# Entry
Amino acid sequence: MKKMTAIIPARGGSKGIPRKNIVNLNGFPLIAYTIEACRLAKRIDRIIVSTEDKEIASIAKKYGAEVPFVRPPELSTDDSRDSDFLNHFFDNIAVDTVALMRPTTPLRNPQIIDKAIKTCYNNINEMTSLRSLNAMNESPYKVYKVENNICCGFFESFKGIKNYSNLPRQLFPKSYEANGHIDIIKRETVRKGDAFGDRIYAFIVDKVVDIDSVFDLEVLKTQVNTEKDLLTKYLKDKK
# Structure
């Protein structure tokens, strides 16, 4: 069984939710859920947290991750791109692929992680990266355009179709959005200056909650309480 290293990017700064990556989620720091999901996945053999923050590093180690290097502060700003910390990771860790596991998507299914890694290895030569996606409830084609992009005015046609947004939903292509369940990144792609490249493999999964705001966090707390998710169970068992 081919396995893969996981990287969890967790910088200290966050504007929407201060210290978001270690915020308390029903008794555990947020990052602990992603670490535990990686620990339970059979195809992940190493879990590395990339951070510039000493407290995050300490918490990550407590829950079973490695922190073999310190991310430079200049790669940990609001404007830092994925390719910045990924290049730093590949500078320090000798692997060709890595599973990118963002801590802001805590309630993952380890079996889906394993399936994604297997899928990646089955298509490794044809793709520049893999991204997990879920189907969107509302098509982006159902939005509106306004003439000359002004604040008020008349509807504009879309591809020559007047009042296109009122067409039946079934006529529009099915649309997907990235959800952060798992992304798989290749060293050779990152070295060319782009984290994902131009040949991205779409790995379709169910929608998962990604924490961008305090509201998202409150929704997630409710889900953890009502669903008794697997990761919370394992974390409580380890206490």
About this structure: Helices lie at 30-40, 54-62, 82-92, 110-122, 187-190, 214-227, 230-238. The chain is about 30% helix and 20% strand. The two ends are 31 Å apart (CA to CA).
